[in-house]
């Protein structure tokens, strides 16, 4: 019942907002007759998947580099889940501190699914552009990887330790120009520019983390944005 109530509210918002962002999710590889779609990989397997992982890292970096004022930028999309508590797509959130995420509520699972679908769609869309930069000889396998690209998952029930890769500042991938090291988007996000005080008010518990947000695997006091 809660799901249908939430769906009704989302539908109403889509109808009444002239600037509504349509959330379709990643559509590549979906069989619309049977509903079958590409399987997600555990992160421990995904990091060794070759083309899919190469595209994921590049797509994620491109996502983070987008202008923070854009409604579909990494900064604004992450803001739907928490800070900064500002309107997204012309609508203010009804949750804690006017945020959107219903933490601690039975509405969290159905709310989080379209949120992740939007996040995944933007990663997937970036991959479709990046793949066309690869040399002709490599393009077929990277196109297939891009078509079926999905967000990986972390099975913390089988291994509660945060994946080591998220604590590495740089990472080696195979890009259109060959193998090279890039800054790891899973490790940190650098604000560009630094957010205004109106979005991170002085005294707010997140404001002390200003210049960047990053993860550390072992330090429990690490700045953790998820």
**Residue ranges: pLDDT <50 for 5 or more in a row?**
1-17, 216-226
With helices defined by DSSP (H or I, 4 residues minimum), what is the helix count? 6
Task: Characterize the largest beta sheet: strand count, sense, and whether it forms a barrel.
Answer: 2 strands, antiparallel
Order of helices and strands: HHHHHHEEEE
**What's the shape?**
globular
Rounded mean pLDDT is 83
Arrangement of strands in the largest sheet: 1-2
CA gyration radius, whole angstroms = 18 Å
| Beta-strand content bin | 5-15%
Oligomer: single chain
- Residues in helices, as a percent range: 25-40%
Distance between the termini: 28 Å
- Number of DSSP strand runs: 4
Which class of secondary structure composition applies to the elements? Answer: mainly alpha
Write the layout of secondary structure elements.
Blueprint: H1 2-16, H2 43-46, H3 51-65, H4 74-81, H5 108-130, H6 139-147, E1 170-175, E2 178-183, E3 188-190, E4 212-214
Helix pairs in contact: 3-5
Provide a quick synopsis of the model.
This protein is 33% helix and 8% strand. It has helices at residues 2-16, 43-46, 51-65, 74-81, 108-130, 139-147; strands at residues 170-175, 178-183, 188-190, 212-214. Strand 1 and strand 2 (178-183) form a beta hairpin.
Plain-language structure description:
- The protein has six helices and four strands; from the N terminus they run ααααααββββ.
- It has helices at 2-16, 43-46, 51-65, 74-81, 108-130, 139-147; strands at 170-175, 178-183, 188-190, 212-214.
- The strands form two sheets. The protein has a two-stranded antiparallel sheet with strand order 1-2. The protein has a two-stranded antiparallel ribbon with strand order 3-4.
- The radius of gyration is 18 Å and the shape is globular.
């Amino acid at each position: 019942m809660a799901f249908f109530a939430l769906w009704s509210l989302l539908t109403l918002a889509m109808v009444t907002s002239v600037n509504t962002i349509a959330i379709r999710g990643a559509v590549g590889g979906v069989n619309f007759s049977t509903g079958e779609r590409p399987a997600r990989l555990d992160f421990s397997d995904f990091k060794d998947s070759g083309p899919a992982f190469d595209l994921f890292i590049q797509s994620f970096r491109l996502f983070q580099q987008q202008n923070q004022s854009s409604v579909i930028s990494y900064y604004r999309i992450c803001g739907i889940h928490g800070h900064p508590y500002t309107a997204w797509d012309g609508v203010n959130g009804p949750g804690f501190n006017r945020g959107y995420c219903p933490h601690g509520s039975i509405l969290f699972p159905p709310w989080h699914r379209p949120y992740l679908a939007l996040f995944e769609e933007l990663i997937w869309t970036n991959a479709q552009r990046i793949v066309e930069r690869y040399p002709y000889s490599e393009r077929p396998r990277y196109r297939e990887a891009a078509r079926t690209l999905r967000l990986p998952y972390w099975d913390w029930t089988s291994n509660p330790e945060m994946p080591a890769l998220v604590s590495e500042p740089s990472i080696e991938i195979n890009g259109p120009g060959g193998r090279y090291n890039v800054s790891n988007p899973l490790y940190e996000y650098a604000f560009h520019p630094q957010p205004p005080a109106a979005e991170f008010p002085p005294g707010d518990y997140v404001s002390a983390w200003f210049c960047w947000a990053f993860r550390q695997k072992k330090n429990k006091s690490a700045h953790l944005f998820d």
